[in-house]
């Protein structure tokens, strides 16, 4: 009944060939909807690869080589000169921060909390390959998601803790080796989180699926307050997806900030600056794509 009421209040959550399954007492996607989700996932991953700044460099170098092979030396010189100049500028100045910081400022850090019924931690803060290889949880730059989730779980000991994350790797589209949720389970249980508090959603491949599948698993009541924990740059897209999926009352708890004062980032840091620029471009394009597709 809660699912039906939620669907009536949030009709956008039924987009994408969704039907009510009385056996599971929840909304499920038919085969066409699941296939569309897979197509969206694959296209998004391929588009994401093209949006990476290092991909642009490869394209520029390849174009220069092609021009040299065609004996277009003057044009090749211009292309290579522009490429080097852009690399120097990006390597010295944190231009990506100018694009990313407005996204990170969308929701305030450390908002006031009183009653919390549930905590949602989104996957992405773990290194699945290293975790599988060394047989222990390994975190990456997004590990602040776990730290914040644990801190909130201890601050609100009665709240349920939902982790949402399967695998966002394109190579796992036919079946994942190990899920983000399995790494999260090891880490949270090792830190003393009781099994009866822990909800593990291990099938999702992107933010929209985090929201939809997490909602099916947690089944929050309309009067419950849940806190969403993810990276600050990812929070606007995540909140958009969770609201579209039909989550009732959500409080954004952004962590893992990647930007600071512009002047503090001036200096040679080509790889770091390119990474921030790539995140900024991906999030701006991703938010637009999710908005247009109703995710």
Largest sheet: 5 strands, parallel
- Low-confidence segments: 1-27
Question: What is the gyration radius calculated from CA atoms?
Answer: 21 Å
Order of helices and strands: HEEHHHHEHHEHEHEHEH
How are the strands ordered across the major sheet? 5-4-3-6-7
Proportion in β-strands: 5-15%
Mean pLDDT: 87
> What general form does the structure show?
elongated
Structural class estimated from helices and strands = alpha/beta
Oligomeric state of shown chains: single chain
Distance between the termini: 23 Å
Total number of strands: 7
Helical content stands at 40-55%
SSE layout and pairings?
Elements: H1 2-9, E1 18-21, E2 26-29, H2 31-50, H3 53-69, H4 73-92, H5 95-104, E3 118-122, H6 128-134, H7 144-155, E4 160-164, H8 180-190, E5 198-201, H9 207-218, E6 225-231, H10 235-245, E7 249-255, H11 270-293
Parallel strand pairs: 3-4, 3-6, 4-5, 6-7
Antiparallel strand pairs: 1-2
Helix pairs in contact: 3-4, 4-11, 5-11, 9-10, 10-11
Describe the structure.
The protein has 11 helices and 7 strands. The two termini are 23 Å apart. α9 packs across α10. The longest helix has 24 residues. A 5-stranded parallel sheet has the order 5-4-3-6-7, with helices on both faces. Strands 1-2 form a two-stranded antiparallel ribbon. The protein has 295 residues and is an alpha/beta fold.
Question: What are its keywords?
Answer:
11 helices, 295 residues, 7 strands, disordered N terminus, alpha/beta
């Amino acid at each position: 009944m809660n699912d039906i009421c939620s669907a009536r209040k949030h009709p956008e959550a039924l987009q994408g060939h969704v039907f009510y399954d009385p056996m599971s007492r929840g909304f499920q996607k038919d085969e066409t909807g699941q296939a569309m989700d897979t197509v969206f996932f694959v296209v998004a991953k391929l588009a994401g690869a093209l949006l990476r700044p290092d991909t642009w460099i490869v394209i520029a170098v390849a174009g220069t080589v092609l021009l040299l092979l065609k004996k277009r030396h003057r044009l090749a010189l211009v292309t290579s000169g522009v490429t080097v100049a852009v690399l120097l500028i990006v390597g010295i100045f944190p231009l990506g921060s100018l694009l990313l910081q407005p996204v990170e400022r969308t929701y305030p850090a450390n908002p006031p909390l009183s009653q919390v019924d549930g905590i949602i931690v989104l996957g992405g803060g773990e290194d699945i390959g290293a975790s599988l290889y060394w047989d222990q949880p390994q975190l990456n730059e997004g590990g602040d998601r776990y730290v914040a989730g644990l801190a909130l779980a201890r601050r609100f000991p009665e709240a349920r803790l939902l982790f949402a994350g399967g695998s966002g790797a394109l190579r796992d589209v036919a079946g994942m080796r190990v899920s983000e949720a399995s790494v999260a389970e090891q880490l949270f249980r090792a830190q003393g989180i009781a099994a009866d508090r822990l909800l593990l959603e291990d099938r999702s491949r992107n933010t929209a699926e985090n929201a939809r599948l997490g909602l099916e698993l947690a089944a929050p009541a309309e009067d419950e307050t849940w806190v969403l924990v993810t990276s600050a740059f990812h929070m606007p897209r995540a909140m958009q997806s969770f609201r579209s999926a039909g989550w009732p009352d959500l409080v954004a708890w952004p962590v893992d900030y990647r930007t600071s004062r512009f002047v503090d980032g001036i200096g040679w840091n080509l790889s770091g600056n390119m990474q921030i620029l790539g995140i900024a471009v991906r999030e701006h394009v991703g938010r637009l794509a999710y908005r247009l597709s109703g995710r």
